[in-house]
Amino acid sequence: MKIALINENSQAAKNAVIVNALKTVAEPLGHTVFNYGMYAAEDKAQLTYVMNGLLAAILLNSKAADFVVTGCGTGMGAMLACNAMPGVFCGLVIDPTDAFLFGQINDGNAISMPYAKGFGWAAELNLQDVYRKLFEGERGLGYPKERAAIMAKNRGILKDVKAASCKDLLTVLKTVDQDLLKAAVAGEKFQEYFFPNCQDQAIGDYIKSIL
Amino acid sequence: MKIALINENSQAAKNAVIVNALKTVAEPLGHTVFNYGMYAAEDKAQLTYVMNGLLAAILLNSKAADFVVTGCGTGMGAMLACNAMPGVFCGLVIDPTDAFLFGQINDGNAISMPYAKGFGWAAELNLQDVYRKLFEGERGLGYPKERAAIMAKNRGILKDVKAASCKDLLTVLKTVDQDLLKAAVAGEKFQEYFFPNCQDQAIGDYIKSIL
Amino acid sequence: MKIALINENSQAAKNAVIVNALKTVAEPLGHTVFNYGMYAAEDKAQLTYVMNGLLAAILLNSKAADFVVTGCGTGMGAMLACNAMPGVFCGLVIDPTDAFLFGQINDGNAISMPYAKGFGWAAELNLQDVYRKLFEGERGLGYPKERAAIMAKNRGILKDVKAASCKDLLTVLKTVDQDLLKAAVAGEKFQEYFFPNCQDQAIGDYIKSIL
Amino acid sequence: MKIALINENSQAAKNAVIVNALKTVAEPLGHTVFNYGMYAAEDKAQLTYVMNGLLAAILLNSKAADFVVTGCGTGMGAMLACNAMPGVFCGLVIDPTDAFLFGQINDGNAISMPYAKGFGWAAELNLQDVYRKLFEGERGLGYPKERAAIMAKNRGILKDVKAASCKDLLTVLKTVDQDLLKAAVAGEKFQEYFFPNCQDQAIGDYIKSIL
User: Fold this and answer.
1) Taking CB atoms and an 8 Å cutoff, what residues of chain D touch B20?
2) Which of A35, A75, A199, C206 makes an SS bond possible with A63, Cβ 3.0 to 4.6 Å?
3) Distance (Å, rounded) from C-alpha D124 to C-alpha D130?
4) For the domain that residue C190 is a member of, what is the CATH number?
5) With an 8 Å Cβ cutoff, is C124 touching chain A?
6) Residue B168's pLDDT is what?
7) Strand ranges (DSSP E) for chain D?
8) Quick check: C57 and C200 in contact, CB under 8 A?
């Protein structure tokens, strides 16, 4: 699985801790981690949590990433921004049980975590545990497993409702403030990571056109 | 403020505990609580968490409610469903500090809470503390207050992005599975609470037309 | 390692869930679990959290057990009772990171957990994660490992201070209310589990004398 | 009530945040806060968590303080050290509900909190909420109140058991490593705060004799 990490400006200084925890867990499980940044508070390309949502939507809808790990100070802003986007189902995950249940019951394609609130000493241990619960096995099996069918059914209905509610991503990209969009894809490594992995010609072309 | 409580089927049995905690806190603060149910597991009108999202969107977009309190087993499904809807900004809130920060920083119009995961003995105390942090003072003041302006600016940008991303609610209501929509508004008290408080003629008329 | 599980009366009904989680994790790691009960709310032998402390002290000081897993509604009472006893160093553990840090930094011989407060749906997942963090590797290695020496030194000082503060267990057993003591060792399986594993003649003899 | 704050060396840098939160809540409620330090990481008088336990015991047993607020990185070490001492009943408190239940059910005379683990941004909000739950009303009323009598009874039994288990404090003070004891009372403000409030001549005299 291709896992994209996206950090916004308020917690950018923790990017190294987060990507280290994520790689430590995900790479031995056979996943690839793409660190889209931000990498440090003083990065030229500054992402706000709203841009995190846009970027997550671009990566997931174009299949440049299979899963997005994002967050902000409380995790709430990045979660709201992600879930405002078509095709993004982003959980707010705080502890390993949250991660497991989100993976098995909701089977979304993104998580947002708090990297400031509750993020104290030894928080890297919790990060690793959370990532392990998400990435070590198959997701979407339900919990308890006897309820897998009804859980899958509700996920399908939610997907349909969200499809009815949101415009397609290309339309969204063309409609949103274009400066905001440009800022969302201005990260130092964005082009290196995105274009070789993008599997949607139209989205890729549009992003190219605004760079 | 008009506060609507919406519970889905898996945790319907806890509706009495939840509404009691909510009223205990919110009514002395001058708010009015509308308990849209479900009221008990065996209610004739069964709400799934996806329907919670639809119902929340109807209440908020029509201004029949100013704030929605919802949830499900983990809070995640109801949160995803709410945030899939236009005009709904739903936080996932677990503890009082979450509630306070969501109110001050994100200033959304809905919260989803876990009513099964982590919901053990004395959980009614946490419910009351959460509601108090949300409803006792002005929201949207920022935390820390020195950062109020930048926080308000980001909220505005998120609102614009979500407006670009979502169709208007009337379109959504007409597009979604009409049986799902009917089920979402089938609650025993829905008509009694909704129609006198609905302030959007078009939404009200459309709901009437499908009953 | 010989791990003893002790539940008090208010949460006795959860004994099956707890012992199942404990055995699921600990037995494949090579540990043996002794379920000292209570086993159900209506057990003839009723343990209060204070008795949990007495029983834990008997098991640990006699080396009939190497580690005690106990708790109560909030975990607090059983923790206080355990730590009131000589030779017992009991952590209050809520999440997997607590468990890991307690094992590595404090390296005590008992944990108390809340089995009512915060103990909701899917709590068995957290139990398993906690037990795994405690029992899967070596304890007392420090975290971070660079601070292992200072952490070990402080543990040693704490042990000395507690030795100065508490009377030896045999004296305590002879001094406490003898009906309380009898009740603490009245569990259905106590004699079957305790006597073959007890490695302290004097403690064993005294317990025999009061049965 | 006289509330004593005691911080150990690993989290000494947070003393200002903690005492500020404690005074903000406790003083308007009519309590007096004595900040026994440490005050900063580089203080001449360095307290370890084991010394926190000794100091807490001196303050509580001499009635120089009615309640002790202490802690360490995880809260566990300071809690273990406090509970190793005669006459100290120290809860490990993480959230406001813990605080409330500890106050109502266990009615101890000390709390230990984690000031590193889980202590992230906005943690001062949780501190205030915790202190409020502890100090704003009467403690020991039970929760639920219908169970007050049985809860009080168990507290009494625990007190008796601990009295049987521990030596009296004066004996402990004379028995422990005298350098450790000297270090525990070496804080810059100790003498100023302790002697005028100490209500136990023998403890006071012994402390004087070792200064």
Assistant:
1) none
2) A199
3) 10
4) 3.40.1400.10
5) no
6) 98
7) 2-5, 32-35, 67-72, 90-92, 110-114
8) no
Tell me the per-residue pLDDT of D43-72, one tens digit each, with 9 for 90 and over. Answer: 999 999 999 999 999 999 999 999 999 999
Average pLDDT per consecutive 10 residues, chain C (211 residues; last block may be shorter) = 98 98 98 98 98 98 98 98 98 98 98 98 98 97 96 98 98 98 98 98 98 93
Choose the closest CB to D116 out of A116, A117, A120: A120
What is the distance between the alpha carbons of residues C160 and A81, in angstroms, rounded to a whole number?
55
Residues of B in contact with C114 (CB under 8 A): 120
| CA–CA distance, D118 with D37 (Å, rounded to integer) | 22
Beta-carbon contacts of B16 under 8 Å, excluding residues fewer than 6 positions away, are: B39
CB A62 within 8 A of CB A204: yes
pLDDT classification of D128: cutoffs 50, 70, 90: very high
- Report yes or no: C81 at the D interface, CB cutoff 8 Å: yes
**CA atoms of C122 and A110, how far apart (whole Å):** 22
CA A170, CA D119: separation in Å to the nearest integer? Answer: 41
Distance from CA of B181 to the nearest CA of C (A): 29
For testing contact with chain B, the best of C8, C11, C115, C117 (most B CBs within 10 A):
C117
Binding partners of C (≥3 Cβ pairs within 8 A): A, B, D
CB D169 within 8 A of CB D85: yes
pLDDT in tens, chain A (211 residues): 999 999 999 999 999 999 999 999 999 999 999 999 999 999 999 999 999 999 999 999 999 999 999 999 999 999 999 999 999 999 999 999 999 999 999 999 999 999 999 999 999 999 999 999 999 999 999 999 999 999 999 999 999 999 999 999 999 999 999 999 999 999 999 999 999 999 999 999 999 999 9
Token pair of D190 as six digits? 């100790």
ipTM: 0.98
Give the domain extent around D164. Answer: 2-210
How far apart CA C53 and CA C201 sit, in angstroms, is 21
Task: Give the mutation candidate from C94, C119, C125, C128 for the A interface (greatest A CB count, under 10 A).
Answer: C125
Number of helical (H) and strand (E) elements in chain D, helices listed first? 10, 5
Flag if D96 and B96 touch (Cβ within 8 Å): yes
Tokens 């063309």, residue located: A174
Residues of D within 8 A of B119 (CB-CB) are: none
**Per the omega criterion (within 30 degrees of 0), is the bond before B144 cis?**
yes
Distance CA D79, CA D60 (A): 15
Q: Which chains touch A (3 or more CB pairs under 8 A)?
A: B, C, D
pLDDT at site B157: 98
Instruction: State how many domains chain B has.
Output: 1
How near does any CA of chain B get to the CA of D2, in Å? 27
Task: Check if C175 contacts D (Cβ < 8 Å).
Answer: yes
Strands (E), A45-177: 67-72, 90-92, 110-114
Range 5-44 of A in CB contact (< 8 A) with B: none
pTM over 0.90: yes
Q: Chain C contacts of B118, Cβ < 8 Å?
A: 118, 120, 123
pLDDT band for position B147 (cuts 50, 70, 90):
very high
Inspect the interface and report whether the beta carbons of D79 and C92 lie closer than 8 Å: yes
